[in-house]
Design goal:
The structure is a homodimer.
Chain A (H helix, E strand, L loop, with lengths): L13 H6 L13 E7 L5 E7 L1 H10 L3 E4 L4 E4 L8 E8 L5 E8 L15 E2 L11 E2 L7 H5 L4
Chain lengths: ~150, ~150
């Protein structure tokens, strides 16, 4: 694919970053932004991942979600293996421009590599004393070994 | 306040972290988790912030959102200055346990220190060529200088 060459602005002072209309994303020390991805139809939070500048630019250019995998240290087109791509309906940026919010149409069964629709399938109980035991709230909607192959 | 002493488990292998019910949050090199906070009534994403272990434990114990401010390097009870506290209705954790999702009741006008209801008040236009100009989608719902005092 041809790379987009759309320029990203450098960050100015806080009022410019927060009140201005220049897109000046604040990448962290590893060159990454945080990205929250929600499902357009349901509003559900599907996943949180990271983007480097190239993933951000490809997402803007192609209207499909690209991320940067910190564990594999590589650019990652969501759905490249599973076919469960994310078509981006809307992108927003937060006040200090270090976090992206994507509103997407999620293809296939779900966003989570474990087989769930959302990565947030477990609840953390609040308030009570004693050891914290997670409560599973959402079941698998696809078989990850069938979609990704056996994990090693 | 008395500190909670609820133990957080250490992370085991991937299948234990992803499929188990032990709460074993994966703090990053700076001792932080990412936290996405959504409004219970609307489902809107209000903000993304960070939690250290103490912020996490206080949030669990008090059912009010506590964060760790990276810029001020201090524990931060959301709403301590503004009164715009967040009562936590539900906490979830993601597959690899490095991100928390809070469903909250947001007191007062909004969650963003700039005066907006949500931090994600600007849209990043997709696809087109040329410089990227953000489009402001949400207006201020409170006057931050009245709530926080003049920023220096």
């Amino acid at each position: 694919m041809s790379e987009t060459t759309r320029a990203l602005a450098s960050q100015g002072g806080a009022s410019q970053v927060e009140e201005g209309t220049a897109f000046a994303p604040k990448f962290d020390a590893n060159g990454l932004l945080t990205c929250v991805t929600i499902e357009a139809s349901s509003g559900e939070v599907l996943m949180v991942a990271h983007m480097n500048a190239l993933a951000l630019q490809r997402t803007i250019a192609t209207r499909e979600a690209w991320y940067f995998s910190r564990s594999r240290r590589e650019l990652w087109r969501k759905g490249a293996t599973s076919g469960f791509v994310q078509r981006v309906i809307e992108m927003r940026v937060d006040c200090d421009q270090d976090t992206i919010l994507l509103r997407v149409e999620q293809a296939g069964g779900g966003a989570c590599h474990t087989g769930r629709h959302s990565c947030f399938y477990r609840e953390v109980p609040l308030g009570s004393e004693g050891p914290i035991t997670l409560e599973v709230r959402d079941q698998k909607v696809f078989d990850p070994s069938a979609v990704y192959g056996e994990r090693t």
